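Query structure, 328 tokens:
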């Protein structure tokens, strides 16, 4: 009966032209697995090996394995075809992606599938944490994937390039959402050749989507012991969060390199925003174009950074020397 209701609801949404929801809950995952959907665990291999949803496949952390380490842009197509195809991750299939609760890696994986034409790519936001909390089974033995030969073709309009962003910045009816921290946005935390933000962008850190936006910092400090605060806010609260934006306008979302932006983009799409795009190169790409205008612009002091690195290296060497002296 539940499955029948699910099918009927999906058909009604499609007939009415309403946006299909791609951020799904535990029951959706259970139903999807029951009718043969693929599960993609978007955590690193070591964490995956400690326990995962039965039947899930893994290629390591997609934000690392699918991207060039220097530019953080996608690897060449033949490499992506080999990685995804080797795990059986065919974008034409129905695929549910998960990681830890709230992890942007799962959303980046979903974005990748959509970028290559997937129409049934979903994110289980609560991930392995929600699965375990519900008493669902986990396994540690890796599933042998069924490799497929892929010929990937990028779909226009899912992501935008730096050239397209520069053109859009001068076009009326385009709104930008910066999902980085407030300090990054203001140019106080510089993680590229220069800091600042795209003129006119609205800064809403991606953690603001969570019930507790400070949950990550609290966990790092040992103030909380679980990821409950990483759960998504109720839909009405999310609508209020993005009330300053127009759902009918073209919306370009960016962060430092596209990870955090992917999560907010999925939230906006689920809220009914009609034309949401992820600026994949994000601030790394934008900042490197020195003629691109920026508000709160601040330049990276390379000399000071080099001195800090040298100081850190000296301290590490000194600690290693002292540890060596203490060994028998």
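Result returned for the query:
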């Amino acid at each position: 009966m539940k499955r029948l209701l699910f099918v009927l609801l999906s058909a009604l949404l499609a007939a009415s032209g309403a946006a299909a929801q791609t951020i799904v809950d535990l029951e959706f995952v259970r139903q999807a697995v029951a009718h043969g959907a693929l599960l993609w665990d978007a955590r690193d291999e070591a964490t995956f090996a400690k326990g995962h949803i039965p039947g899930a496949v893994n290629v390591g952390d997609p934000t690392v394995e699918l991207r060039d380490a220097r530019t953080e842009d996608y690897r060449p197509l033949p490499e992506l075809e080999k990685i995804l195809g080797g795990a059986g991750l065919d974008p034409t299939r129905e695929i549910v992606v998960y990681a830890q609760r709230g992890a942007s890696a799962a959303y980046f994986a979903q974005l990748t599938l959509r970028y290559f034409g997937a129409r049934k790519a979903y994110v289980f936001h609560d991930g392995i944490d929600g699965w375990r909390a519900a008493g669902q089974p986990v396994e540690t033995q890796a599933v042998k994937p069924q490799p497929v030969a892929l010929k990937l073709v990028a779909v226009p309009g899912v992501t935008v390039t730096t050239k397209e962003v520069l053109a859009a910045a001068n076009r009326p009816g385009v709104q930008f959402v910066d999902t980085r921290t407030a300090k990054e946005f203001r140019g106080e935390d510089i993680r590229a050749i220069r800091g600042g933000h795209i003129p006119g962008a609205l800064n809403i850190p991606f953690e603001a989507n969570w019930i507790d936006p400070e949950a990550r910092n609290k966990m790092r400090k040992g103030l909380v012991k679980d990821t409950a605060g990483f759960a998504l806010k109720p839909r009405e609260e999310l609508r209020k969060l993005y009330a300053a934006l127009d759902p009918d306008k073209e919306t370009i979302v960016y962060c430092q390199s596209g990870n955090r932006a992917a999560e907010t983009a999925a939230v906006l799409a689920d809220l009914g925003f009609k034309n949401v795009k992820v600026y994949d190169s994000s601030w790394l790409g934008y900042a490197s174009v020195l003629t691109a205008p920026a508000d709160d612009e601040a330049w990276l002091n390379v000399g000071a950074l080099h001195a800090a690195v040298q100081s850190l290296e000296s301290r590490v060497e000194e600690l290693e020397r002292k540890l060596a002296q203490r060994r028998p």
